[in-house]
Design brief:
Layout (H helix, E strand, L loop, with lengths): L2 E5 L6 H10 L4 E5 L13 H14 L5 E3 L11 H18 L6 E4 L2 E2 L5 H15 L7 E5 L7 E2 L3 H9 L7 E6 H6 L8 H11 L5 E6 L1 E2 L10 E2 L8 H9 L7 E4 L5 H14 L3
Parallel strand pairs: 1-2, 1-12, 2-3, 3-4, 4-6, 6-8, 8-9, 9-12
Antiparallel strand pairs: 5-7, 10-11
Helix pairs in contact: 1-2, 3-4, 4-5
This protein binds fe (iii) ion (2 copies) and zinc ion (ZN).
The site of one fe (iii) ion (FE) has 3 residues, from loops.
């Protein structure tokens, strides 16, 4: 079963997103937990959540992915920035329990001259403060492009973070195809090799989601500029291998390409066409 969706605006609630996903030919979706630049989240609307659960069960919507604001920095040098990150992520995770058993993705952080080792330590410390044993959400570390001082563009860095987290079973990884490509992993010519490296360093059992994006820039560019599927440096043939690879095909795929809703519907249809069922 192919699980495919795209990023949607959360401004009209969960039921609205689920209906929109179905209209686009999707069976999952991603959304920001709040304004991507931070700020306060809307109150949870329990009636909306209940209606969403009923609709999702009826229409086969599954494994939705909440994305943390991308301005959070879980390894900031400034104590107040760190505190804001902690409070925001904790609040997001408490709210996620209204939709049990789903995924929460975040960008590990930027070490900004502190060095990658300090970054890794601080990110792990952040996770150790916000995870709790009874939570049902899986928290995903996203693979990054290595722009600026981003932590997490090497699989080894993600592994080092995970190794320092007490409730490691609450963690997983979201592989962003644009980011890993820009980070130097050749998913075009050596997908098997990249996934073997992932398995050796992190373990494929920890890979829980894929952000499926083409890239405006060449391999190892460290840029992080997403492109529409087939129009970038990854290309349609590579995506055909990606959506069918035995290590990936059962994971949920989320588009974060520069598109309006019609464009997303076209890409979902395109990717469905690439699948060998
Ligand atoms: Fe992201
Ligand atoms: Fe992404
Ligand atoms: Zn990106």
């Amino acid at each position: 079963m192919f699980t495919i969706g795209c990023h949607l605006s959360a401004s009209k609630g969960y039921l609205f997103m689920a209906r929109q996903a179905v209209e686009l030919g999707a069976n999952t979706f991603q959304f920001f937990t709040r304004n991507p630049r931070g700020g306060s989240a809307k109150e949870m609307d329990e009636a909306d959540v209940a209606a969403f659960h009923a609709y999702a069960a009826e229409h086969g919507i599954r494994t939705i992915l909440a994305h943390a604001p991308y301005t959070l920095n879980a390894c900031a040098a400034d104590a107040r920035v760190m505190e804001f990150c902690l409070q925001t992520m904790k609040d997001d995770l408490l709210r996620m329990e209204y939709t049990p058993g789903q995924l929460y993705n975040f960008h590990p952080g930027s070490h900004v001259q502190q060095g990658v080792e300090v970054g890794i330590e601080k990110i792990a410390a952040t996770l150790n403060q916000i995870l709790w044993p009874e939570m049902t959400t899986t928290v995903l570390l996203e693979t990054m492009a290595g722009k600026g001082s981003e932590v997490g563009s090497r699989f080894e860095e993600l592994r080092e973070i995970m190794d320092r987290v007490q409730l490691r079973e609450k963690l997983g990884v979201c592989l962003d195809t644009c980011h890993v490509h820009d980070g130097g992993y050749d998913v075009v010519n050596d997908l098997d090799g990249v996934l073997t490296q992932f398995d050796n360093v992190i373990g494929l059992s920890h890979l829980r989601a894929v952000h499926i994006n083409d890239s405006k820039n060449p391999l190892s560019s460290h840029k992080d500029r997403h492109e529409k599927i087939g129009l970038g440096h990854i290309g349609t043939e590579a995506f055909a291998r990606i959506v069918n690879h035995p290590a990936l095909r059962d994971l949920p795929f989320y588009l974060e390409t520069p598109n309006d809703l019609d464009g997303y519907a076209e890409e979902i249809a395109l990717l469905r066409g690439l699948r060998n069922e």
